[in-house]
Write a structure and sequence with these properties.
Elements: H1 2-25, E1 66-70, E2 77-82, E3 88-93, E4 97-102, E5 113-117, E6 123-128, E7 134-139, E8 145-150, E9 155-161, E10 171-178, E11 183-189, E12 193-197, E13 203-208, E14 214-219, E15 225-230, E16 235-243, E17 246-256, E18 263-268, E19 274-279, E20 283-288, E21 300-306, E22 315-318, E23 324-329, E24 332-337, E25 343-347, E26 356-361, E27 367-372, E28 377-381, H2 383-399, H3 403-424
Antiparallel strand pairs: 1-28, 2-3, 3-4, 4-5, 6-7, 7-8, 8-9, 10-11, 11-12, 12-13, 14-15, 15-16, 16-17, 18-19, 19-20, 20-21, 22-23, 23-24, 24-25, 26-27, 27-28
Helix pairs in contact: 2-3
Length: 425
Amino acid sequence: SKMAVLIIGVAILAGLVLLAVFLKRQPEPAPVVEEPAPAKPVAKPENSTIKPKKNKPVKYTRPDELLTSLKGHTGPVLDIKFSPSGQHLFSVSEDRSIRRWELDQLSQPQHGYLRSNIEFDHAACIGLTSDAKALVVGMATGRNAQVFKVAKKEVAAMITMPEKPSSPSQVVSVGISADSHAKYILVAYADATIELYHPRGELIQTLNAQNHTLYRASVSPCGLFFACSGFTPDVKVWAAIGANGSFVNGAKAMILKGHNSGVLDFKFSADSNKMVTVSKDGTWRLYDIDVNWKVNQDPKLLTSGGYSLTGDSAFVAVEPEGHAVMVASGTTLQYFSGHTGQLLKTVEQAHQKGTITGLDASLDSLYFATSGTDKHIHIWKNTFGLLEKQRVLKDQLTRETRAVVEDRIKSQLRLIDEAIATLNA
C-alpha cells in the first residue's frame, strides 16, 4: 500500500542521514611522509688524517717605552737597585749571583757586567750605600745578611750578620747607611722583627714593627730615616739618631696614613723628601715627608691614584723629582703623573714570560727598571716623567716675570728636549 511505501522511504532516508553523521566524525588519515634515504658515507682516501686547527699565538709587540733588556742571569731575578751615580745597576738572582751592570752600554747589543757568586745560598733582596761602595744582601735560606765591598773590578764578601739566624722568619728587606747621620745596617724579617747592626757586625738595636707581617723595609738615601710596611695600612718611619757618625738609637719619626689595607711596597725619593706607597687596596699615594717631625708634624699627601692589582704583590717607584710614579703588579706596568695622579700609560705583558719581582728608578730621571721571573731585567724610558716636568716648567714660564728665572726655566726645557731626543734615538 501507499502507506507502507512511505514508511520504507522514511526509514531509508533516516539511515542515510545517520551514516553521513557517522562518517563525518571519523578522523582523517594522517598524510604519509616518506623518510629520506640514509646518506651514503663519504669515502676517505687511504692513510689520510684530519688535523685540528691550531690557534695562532698572539704576536708579541715590543712596547715603545722599553729601551733594552739586560740578559745573563740563569735564574729568576729577585731584586734590583740603581747606583746613586747612575752608572750601574745591581741585581740579585736565584742563580746565586750578584751582578753590577754597566749602564753606559745600554745602547750596545751586549751589556757588560761584573759578577760575584754567593756560596751555598742565594740573595733575595739588596741594599746599597749612597756612594755605592758597599752593598748588603738578605739571604734566602740563611735568614741573615751579608755585606759586600764594591770595588772597580770586584764585589767581595766582607761580613755576615748575624752568624746564626736570630729569627725563624725569612729576611724580606735589607738596607745600609754609611752617611754622616749614622752608620748602620738594617735587616728586616717577615715576622715584623727589625734588627740594626753596626757595619762591624755588632747588634745595635732590635725593634718590633708591630705589623703582624712585614712586607718591606728600607733605608732612605740620606741615611737619616728607615721605614717599614706590612699587614697594617700604614708605613712607620724612624729617625736614625746618630752622634759622630755612630748609630745611637732609632726614634719613631712619623707614620704615613691613608690606605685601607696593607702596604705592599714603598720607596724614598732620591732627596729623601718624598715617599711613595702602594697598597692592597688598589691605590698608590705620594707624600711630602720634608716636615718638622720633631714636633709631630704629619707628612703631607701630594697626590694619589688607582692601579691594576694582579695577585698578591705590587711594586712602586718614583722618579727623583716626583714628576712620575710607576707601579708594577703581575706582568702589568703603569705610568702615572706625580702631580695629578692621572694614568699616563699601561704596558701589558711588560715581562712576556714571567711576573715582575722588583722595580726601581734611576737618580738621573732617565730610566725605570724592572726585574722578573723570566730571568731578565728591563730598562724603561722615563719619557712620561720628562714630559710631566716639561709641562710643569712651561706652566711656570707663562706666569714668570723675572728674566733670570725665565732664562733658567728655558735652559731646563732645552735639557729635557735633549734627554727625550736621546731616549727616543
